[in-house]
Amino acid sequence: METLIETALRDRDQDGTIRWNAIAMLHERGDLETFTAARRLCAGETAAERMLGVDIIGRLPFVDRSLPVLRFLAASEDDCMVLYSVLIAFGHLRDRRALPSVVALGEHADPRVRYGAAYALPNIIGSPPDPAGLIALERLTQDPDDDVAEWARLGLALSTGREIEEIG
């Protein structure tokens, strides 16, 4: 496991094939040892370590243990790419308890963070959709960043069953 973590950390490309192959192997392990190592990374000194920890935790089957770690990072992290990863992890975990963190980050100054919120919201607002989540998603449909607004419109359409043309 440590070799996989070291391999992922060496790949400086956050979307790199080597990094994500190592992360996928860690996800396949899906054990408590992997979770513990990822949780340690989430407290790492570098943004690369914290982001790797989040990217691992985001797809492990320990939602009740993962959410507090991710919610802490959502409230305390300064690095926009780590926050983006936190939001993607929230979306993968699909747990409504992440909603307050995601709604708050939906107002972040950086469009990458807002994009992550637009991704996460449709996955966590539930069915029927939580009103606060819908309001946040509707606000993001008017975002000045076209990618954020487009993703939010898609998420709103999927969450409400409305046509995208009706939303835009």
Order of helices and strands: HHHHHHHHHHH
Report the β-strand fraction as a percent range.
under 5%
Biggest sheet overview: none
CATH architecture of the largest domain: Alpha Horseshoe
- Name of the CATH class of the largest domain: Mainly Alpha
Percent in helix: over 70%
Model regions low in confidence, pLDDT < 50 over at least 5 residues:
none
Number of structural domains: 2
Topology:
Layout: H1 2-10, H2 17-29, H3 32-42, H4 47-57, H5 63-76, H6 80-93, H7 99-105, H8 111-124, H9 131-140, H10 146-160, H11 164-167
Characterise the protein shown here:
The structure is a single chain. This protein starts with a helix and ends with a helix. The protein has helices at 2-10, 17-29, 32-42, 47-57, 63-76, 80-93, 99-105, 111-124, 131-140, 146-160, 164-167. It is globular. 73% of the residues lie in helices and 0% in strands. It folds into 2 domains: 1-61, Alpha Horseshoe (Leucine-rich Repeat Variant); 70-168, Leucine-rich Repeat Variant. Helix 2 packs across helix 4 (47-57) and helix 7 packs antiparallel against helix 8. The protein contains 11 helices and no strands. It is mostly helical. InterPro entries: ARM-like, ARM-type_fold. It holds the Pfam family HEAT_2. This is HEAT repeat domain-containing protein.
